[in-house]
Every structure is written in structure tokens, then in C-alpha cells.
Amino acid sequence: MASLRLYIWLFLNICFYTSGAEAKAPSRPVQPYHYGYSRIQETDQAWKCWKEGYRPPPATSNKIHEQGNGTVAEIERILRFDQSNTVLFLFSSNSDNQNLHTTFTVERNKLVRLSLDNAGLERLELALLGRENDCRLADLSVPRNRLRDLPTGVERLTALRKLDYSYNLLEEFKLDRLANAAGLKQLLLSHNRLERFVATEQVNLAALHKLDLSNNRLRALDASYWTMPQLETFHVDNNRHMTMIDGWTRAKFPLVKGFDPAGTNNWNQTWLKSVQ
């Protein structure tokens, strides 16, 4: 009986100590993420198409700038801004955002420029009704995220001048999807996992002057369907299995003076001398 009382006493004390330790254990700290963002809102302007150099009238615009440290919930709140009257939204973070997981949906809006840099994005969507946004969004920049695909409906962004998907997880890019963005000037796709960059029909990007495909996994490129008479800056370095670009001639791309000056690719030297 004495040994039984001793066993019960020890059991109760162990349970009490364990529950007490659990109660006193510090909770895991909530990880803060540093951010900064700027937003310009239009307060009193009817819908209209974007024009080169567009700026909202000072009399009807409201500028907001904020920076600080926030939790995931606070970052998500910032990304749920009112798009219906926002002209410019620029979000960036210099935190290590590997544990930040967010999504973003472009809704009916007045956005001229949207930049979500290192925002933990895993999915980007377009939820547009009618034709209103076709002639508005000119700059879509989402670098340093975890995006694997272009959003469905990107073909509708006819006013695009800049598309920046650098430092993401793209494995394939179909240039045909930008055929309606005739005024596109910059297409930035460096530091992805691209194995295919293809066009299956003639794509006329008459205004494109910068194309960056560097630091990917491309083995082949075919420029036969590219019409880019203003192309001047073309980066394709650090695609180490590239040997040549089909359909590339000096006459077709007269402004490009060199696309791998450091010699990081395994070029066919005979072909390289013929095109540079």
C-alpha cells in the first residue's frame, strides 16, 4: 500500500510539473516582415484609357506611403487595397520571405502601374469583367516571388509597356500570349527555370527594346516568329546549354550588338561569328 501511495504521489507531481511547464513555455514569436509601399489614388476621375506619360491630376489624387514591419495578416491586409480608385501601387520587401505565402487578384480597377516585389506571391489572378482594363494597366512587375504561371487573361492587357516576371519559377513562356500588347517595351524573365520560350505564330512586338532571358535553363531558341525591329538589349547569358538561336540574323535584329559578352553559353562559334 505504501508503494502504491508513493506511485500516485509521483504520478501527480509529474503531471503537475508537466502541465506547469507547458503553461510557462513561451509562445513562438510571430515573424515580422519588413515592407514598404506607395499608393496613388484617384478620387474624382472618370474611367479613361491610359496614355503615354499619364499622371493623375494633382487636384484629384491622394498619395500614401508607408513602411514598417508586419505579420502575414498585415501584409495580406495591405495587398487587399481598394483597386477601384488606385492608379499606382508599389509594394516591396527586403525580408527573407520564404515563409510568406500570399496570392493577389487584379480586379476591376484604374491601375496604371502595379509592382509586387518580394511579396511572397504564389498565385496571381486577373478577375476582370467587360473590357475596361484592356486599355489601362501599363506596368505589371512581380519580381522575386514564387509564381509558376502567367495569369489567365494576360492576353487582355493591351496597354502593357513593361512585364517583369524575373526571379520566379516559370518553366515555360508562350510569347503568343503577348501578341495583343503591341506597345510592350520591356519583357524581363531572368532568373526563372525556363526550359521553353516559344512562339507558334508571328508575334509583332514593334516597340520592344529589352528582352531578358538570362539565367534560365534554355537549351534552344527559335526567333523565326519574332518581329522586334527595335530590340536593342537582349540578354540570354547563363543558359549554359545554348549553342545557337534558330532564325536569328543580323538583318532581322540590327540594333542588338551582342547578347552574351561574357561567353557563358556553349555557342557554336561558327554560328556566333555569323550573327554578331
TrEMBL record:
Name of a matching Pfam family: LRR_8
Keyword Hydrolase in annotation: no
InterPro entries in the cross-refs: Leu-rich_rpt, LRR_dom_sf, LRR_domain-containing
Top-rank taxon, per record: Eukaryota
UniProt keyword Hydrolase present: no
Gene Ontology cellular component annotations, sorted alphabetically: cytoplasm
PANTHER family, sorted: PTHR48051, RAS SUPPRESSOR PROTEIN 1
Protein name: Leucine rich immune protein (Coil-less)
Organism for this UniProt entry: Anopheles coluzzii
Lineage: Eukaryota, Metazoa, Ecdysozoa, Arthropoda, Hexapoda
